[in-house]
Specification:
- The protein has one domain (about 15-135).
- It has 6 helices and no strands.
- It has helices at about 15-40, 55-75, 80-100, 105-110, 115-120, 125-135.
Length: about 140
Amino acid sequence: MSAPTPPPDEPPRHPERVAGLLVAIVWAALVFAVFGVLAVVLDRDPVEHPVGPYFGLVAILLALAVVYLGIVLTTPARTPGLGAVATAAGVYLVIVVSALVVDTDLAFEQAASPFVLAAALLALAPPIASWAYFRARG
């Protein structure tokens, strides 16, 4: 009689992909809330340049994709520092470059905007938090 066949190998699971999506969505909601608070405190709009109403949403959605990639690529790393800094820089650059596509003056306005800086600073936390959570789980 022949030896029993071993069960097929299960493909590796990647829970950081689903968790990364959820964390990135929470990041976007938090950024949206912080933009609202900053708008009231600073008495200015996040985008003061006359552009269409969807520029801000598109810029944040593109930044959300950067945060998601930052989480997914940082989670398996040995340390989260470089991934977190790259994610924050990516968020800043994506927002400024998306503004550059619309108008050069808008790009300069967004490059110095406290709203963009706040979004970039908030983007430091998701890769570090996700890395710490999945590192603790083993």
